[in-house]
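can u do me a favor
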């Protein structure tokens, strides 16, 4: 492999796809020019199929626009879209207790609130990234305040409804890993010791409790002290989440001048999760595995969703940057070749989100409450950034 040519090719591809495909699709079809914010429930051709607004995607879209503005091109349309969406968040998406809704109507009337704080984490990174893009420090301060509210919600008994009754003492991987990225994105806009401490605490918790060498796996759910729970839920491996976690940790290792302990931990998670996740028969990263190789419960366990593929693309580039080991470029090529052969819609633009195990399209919508402008454009922005850094 000619590494320089390979990285140059992907650098150009990521930038061109953002400028000519992904961002135009969402600005044309998703941006709500009447109410502010963004719609994500779009059919294959971009037509609106539901006016319900996903609150966490308001933050995700504002982050996407601001992050692309900061790292690909200072396009004023992107910055204006980010501001419109943040305004919508501030005007409509917070409940009176300071927590955020999960779904609202087109005009911002609340529809649903959940026990999670993911809406809050994405709003926080949106405000932080917008602060960098716009130069308006007040948004960095708002992001930091929201981050500390998130910590308070998580650490104050009774604020968030528990997932299970007290008969099951467990904790989940998702919130631990997302707080690494949340804190690191806010730290890029404003310094505070609470951000560094959260990153340290999350990484330590992942290593101590969620990494289980007896299975060569990072588990999604463990006991309160990291115990293995031998149930269907306790045995779940979500390779996409684990691979995403690996690059969050690699990003932090890079921030610390490639701290060896963090780099080794992240590479271990990536190698384990690739082995569990890569479908050796059909290709692509599979949704769920059972650490005892028993049948997973989730009905979509063997499907190929868009986002695990994008996380593997980012993680493999970070791993190559950390090690210069071409096995990670081979991994990048393997997942990229499969992803780009199956997910992009060359007729109407953007990507399909849901494929059967063999790579055929399960349903053609471009978005819903859970899929929208985040994982794909984040991958392209990060991919462009990393390839440019790696080029001589």
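np, heres the sequence
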């Amino acid at each position: 492999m000619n590494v320089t040519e390979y990285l140059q090719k992907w650098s150009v591809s990521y930038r061109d796809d953002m400028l000519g495909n992904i961002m135009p699709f969402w600005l044309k079809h998703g941006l709500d020019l009447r109410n502010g914010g963004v719609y994500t429930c779009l059919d294959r051709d971009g037509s609106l199929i539901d006016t319900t607004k996903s609150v966490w995607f308001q933050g995700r879209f504002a982050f996407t626009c601001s992050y692309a503005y900061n790292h690909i091109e200072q396009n004023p349309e992107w910055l204006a879209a980010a501001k419109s969406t943040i305004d919508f968040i501030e005007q409509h998406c917070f409940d009176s207790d300071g927590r955020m809704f999960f779904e609202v109507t087109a005009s911002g009337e609340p529809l649903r609130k959940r026990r999670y704080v993911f809406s809050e984490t994405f709003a926080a990174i949106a405000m932080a990234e917008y602060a960098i893009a716009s130069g308006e420090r007040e948004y960095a301060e708002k992001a930091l305040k929201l981050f500390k509210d998130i910590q308070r919600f998580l650490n104050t008994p009774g604020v968030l409804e528990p997932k299970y009754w007290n008969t099951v003492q467990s904790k989940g991987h998702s919130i631990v890993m997302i707080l690494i990225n949340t804190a690191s994105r806010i730290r890029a806009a404003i310094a505070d010791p609470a951000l560094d401490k959260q990153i340290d605490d999350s990484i330590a918790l992942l290593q101590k409790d969620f990494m289980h060498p007896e299975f060569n796996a990072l588990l999604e759910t463990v006991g309160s002290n990291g115990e293995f729970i031998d149930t269907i839920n306790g045995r779940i491996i979500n390779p996409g989440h684990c691979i995403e976690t690996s690059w969050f940790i690699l990003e932090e290792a890079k921030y610390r001048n490639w701290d060896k302990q963090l780099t080794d931990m992240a590479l271990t998670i990536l190698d384990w999760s690739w082995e569990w996740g890569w479908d050796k028969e059909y290709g692509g990263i599979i949704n769920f595995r059972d650490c005892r190789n028993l049948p997973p419960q989730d009905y979509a366990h063997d499907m190929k969703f868009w986002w695990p593929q994008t996380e593997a693309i980012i993680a493999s580039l970070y791993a190559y940057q950390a090690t210069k080991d071409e096995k990670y470029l081979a991994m990048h090529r393997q997942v990229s070749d499969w992803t780009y052969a199956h997910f992009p819609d060359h007729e109407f633009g953007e990507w399909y989100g849901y494929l059967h195990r063999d790579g055929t399209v399960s349903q053609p919508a471009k978005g819903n409450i859970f899929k929208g402008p985040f994982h794909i454009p984040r991958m392209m922005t990060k991919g462009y950034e990393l390839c440019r850094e790696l080029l001589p």
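The mean pLDDT is 97. hope that helps!!
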